[in-house]
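Quick entry, no commentary yet.
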Amino acid sequence: MTISTEAAKPLPFSSAVGSLIEATDAIRNFRAIALLALTFIGAVLVGGVLTMLAGGMSSALLAFLGGLMAFLVMFYGSNAVGILLMRDAQGQPGMSLVDAVLVSLYTSHRLIAVVFLEFLIVLAAMIAIAIILFVCKIPVLGPVLYAVVFPLSAIVLGVLVFALFYVMLPLAGPAAWSGASVFQIIARLNQIVRTKLVSVILLEVLLFLITAFVALLIFGVLGTGVSLTTGMSAGILSLGEMNMYALAAGLGRGGSGSGYIVAAGLGGGLLMAAAAVVPGLIFTKGVCIIYLDATRNVDFGASEASLNDGLATVKKKAEEARERARALAEQASAPAAPAAAAAPAAAPVDSLQCPSCKAPVASDDVFCGECAHKLK
């Protein structure tokens, strides 16, 4: 009896494109829609209110705090949405909004660590190339070496940047949402870069086009409506010139402008945030589909083992260097050995004295020559 392996084969590129079109089905996930809308609206409210307070109090610290709080709301909320859509793409049962937020609060820091490590990898490559370029300053031999270093450096940096912005950063989120640890994410993305870089980039370009088309359609409709409503409001409510600059200026003055201007600024911000929900959902589910297609039936055991071995080697060498430095420090701080005690000087032969008058006498004298004291 033979076992069919057809199901174990990865999807062809055409099927992957077809599955990517299904990312538009994300608008049917009402939990994800509600959570992403709450995330956008919450970020706008937090950032807007604190910005208004900062404008009224002229506090740069409060403005920075407002931006930071808005970023944190967006970061953890969007990751919670990603967790919901990843489970949807995997065909797993959904979870409640509270559970998704809790999981996001517990695991989203992995993305920060992954992004930090990815930029460290690029920085290390640039430092290594910079060192090689300094070597190329050697007279006579330098230009010959540079003829080889220049094209190789261009290829390495080009591939690294493309891998960073088209694979590492977009797919780090889906990898974390699927439950992978930091080093598992690095190992898996590294294998995707080595084996499926071109196909992943093509799928992401297609996803960008789909998302951009949907966003253009939605914001085109809203832009038309906002433009007409703004013109009517300016005439009926006697608001004078009313545009996006005026709305932003009204918020920036801490609400010191017209109440209508402040209300329009907050309402327009909430409207734009809600409009960004649909494109955001499509893009998030799209990257989940791309990640699942790139990792379908791929054994990452060898890649993860290689990464763990490399980390173990680096850790061992660092420990050896630490022990060597500790030994050298102890040797340098140890007190010097005390010098050997000098041997007592031998007494001169003629250093004997008469016990009575203290006059010097010889060892064979019987009487002192000064006071005639009997010595023997």
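second:
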Amino acid sequence: MNALRPTLLAAALVFTMAGGQAFAQNADKLPRAKVTLVAPPMVHPHEQVAKSGPKVIEFVMTIEEKKMVIDDKGTTLQAMTFNGSMPGPTLVVHEGDYVEVTLVNPASNAMPHNVDFHAATGALGGAKLTNVNPGEQATLRFKADRSGAFVYHCAPEGMVPWHVVSGMSGTLMVLPRDGLKDPQGKPLHYDRAYTIGEFDLYIPKDANGKYKDYATLAESYGDTVEVMRKLTPSHIVFNGKVGALTGANALTAKVGETVLLIHSQANRDTRPHLIGGHGDWVWETGKFGNPPEKNLETWFIRGGSAGAALYTFKQPGVYAYLNHNLIEAFELGAAGHIKVEGKWNDDLMKQIKAPGPIPR
């Protein structure tokens, strides 16, 4: 048997290599589609149900290192981003498609970067194959072999936490080819899709208790890591800034519309809640191959993952969407608004008596 082992191993290697070559050749023969990415909370146009067979879907993501203001007090973060936004853009494909990402690290940047796709199989989620120094770019292709909403993030050796909490994460959504379904297999459709990327930020303070401002990424590194290791965020924000999704920046919808809310957190656990609404259908773990849960008041997103929830709005008004750790929402910034237009339904809610003096 030992004498046969080298032969068997050689045969297995030839079979594996042949299979790998066939795999690549099949992908090379597929039609290709280029997608222009958009900044969150928006999601690029996409088919909810695939109208054709698998494709190679091409994306380009450019890394941008820049200083960002993260609250209304002028506090700054030396941020690292995909395409200039926190979170990075949401990429949408269908199960069976090939994701082909060109990662660009301009020479004007200071740091090496890469990308780890939680949806991918092999080579640290692609991180090992996308290490790019300033002035370099690399192209990665992988098969989207399972459906769901998945986090992607930067993962350079020795610097992963710093890059992630400095803005470098986003979501890849792999839809089933026949679209989303309820537990009975009935199709589920959405009229709008929004991305909410939640970030825990760690801004150092000076001796007087004021947040520091740094001229460069390198200058901010030591102090930031020291604060990070205490595991106490200075800010917890949606989409890169306190108020990024409130007031004039609020998400919008209309009564009768169904909205898909894609929520990611690459580092910490979170508990999304829609005040005045519900999760009609919720993929708490973000995996569309599992049946969604129904009528949730609050759902749980594990750190390092993305979840998705569908809700059909029934009443007009301003809905608060927040992390229901209320301290993190109201004190640290993890909250947004959804403004909904339409006609009020008294049957669902009505004030019977306005506030007034207690009768004697």
